[in-house]
Design a protein that fits this description.
alpha+beta; globular; binds adenosine-5'-triphosphate
Length: about 550
Amino acid sequence: MAFIVKKNIHDKEYYYLNENKRVDGKVKTKTLAYLGKNKKEAERKAKEILTNKKKQPDQKILKALELEEKTTEKPTEISIEELAAFCKRKGFVYQSGEIYGGFAGFWDFGHLGTELKNNIKKEWWKFHVLQREDIVGIDGSIITHPKIWEASGHADSFIDVLVVDKKTKEKFKVDRFEAEKYKGDQRFEVKGEFSPMFTINVGPIISDSIKSYLRPETAQLIFSNFKAVYENARLKLPCGIAQIGKAFRNEIAPRDFLFRAREFEQMEIEYFIKKGIKCPYDIPDKEVLVYSAEAQEQNKEPVVMKIKHALEKGMIKKDWHAYWLATELRWFLELGASRDNFRIRQHLKNELSHYSSDTWDLEYKFPFGWKELEGIADRGNFDLSQHEKFSGKDLKVFDEESKEKILPEVICEPSLGIERAFLVFMLDSYYYNKGRENIVLRMHPKLAPVKAAVFPIVKGPKFEKIAEKIVKDLKQEFNVLYDKSGSIGRRYARNDEIGTPFCITIDGDSLKNEDVTVRNRDTKKQIRVKIIELKDILRKLIENEIKFEKAGKLFS
Ligand code: ATP
């Protein structure tokens, strides 16, 4: 029997058409359709659906559900605390040392979070290193020669200022340039300057040990290895060196879940050029909110425009900066992030780091406001010349074109924290689906922690044997999950919530036809695919090389 139910979700009313059915002696409720937010309208729709149901049983219901899928076009807005709770519940991220009360600023990644993080790194490396001819990668040590940090200026100038809000007792960090504004305000107390560098004694006998640091950024390892890598990899300017690895900062106030951690990972590129050389690459055709330093100084709003037009209008001064900003944005968008949540913002003069003549940040609209996601600084030849000075070594390289030795400049340093990228991909794929009454994590298949889930739909050894064989085969290449417990609806819901893009079922027809059904997480459409072709088709679907509807015989 069908009936209308009202649900209150986030203080809003939603109406659904449900039906009770007796299955194996038990009464089970199934949602037939979403009816909207208005009671009268819901009654009218329900009547229509039930009349049509008599004529054409499943088609109309499917259409209604499909329509519902299409209406949820934007991710559901959630707070950072809600996201943290979700990540914990599903096995993405845990507070480190939680059984001892937690350890502020440190996070452990669970079985799904680790997969997602690895996939982010894999996609970043593919896009920035493997698919390019001008960039190679390195993996430097975490504890480094202390001189490196003297040369880079970190030992002396990498300083955070601690400010306390006297009213709320909240502690937070500001940069030196911002400290002045708090000094003049009664409400705040500027507590002093602190170095965010973690010190460490190298050598077991403390009195004989050398004081060093856990690296606060990966970049300096690229500079200190620059000449060796340039020569051994036979690089030619313009070229880049990339690195992914841990960085540590003793943050004054770690907060906002993964956003500000004390241990995190960076994905960085130092891109070297001969001074004055034009960017030979096409600037990706990307449109985004652009916020120049001038607009900020004049209290104007950012404007939406193509990054290449911002270059033409002189808002972005250098073609290289426009190229790297658009390239970095492209990486995020191609992996499914939502363009509306991004903007590029130029640093104000007093905000620039000691080494940079111009810096633009790629910012993201986090639940707690617009914040830096990735910094893209023009560092000039500051670092290489400092390392020349402190090491006494010649770090110049031979330039084929001018036949002379030159010290290259870093025209751009795209520097992205993996944890912040992790938040972006989680937030932009988090959809509460009213029709299904569960969260659907609409993550790009390349990033999804589990690529496919396999369910035998009918109980019995014959079906389970096929399912197990499929799982074994797919597991050679993909992270695949085998799930044979609970109702089929529960199994789909469990996988929707962790972002599994494809669910494979073995049903009655599989035995005679040697095929399976594959369900698309986002549209719920299903196709039948021959078992022998499954691995190949799954690979193509993940890589976006084939449309779902064309990958097999569409049946619902
Ligand atoms: P913020 O102003 O937010 O402290 P920053 O300007 O000091 O950042 P950079 O030194 O430019 O950061 O570091 C490059 C990137 O490393 C940042 O854009 C961010 O993605 C990441 N990052 C920096 N600090 C942290 C942190 N404490 N936790 C997580 N990621 C971080």
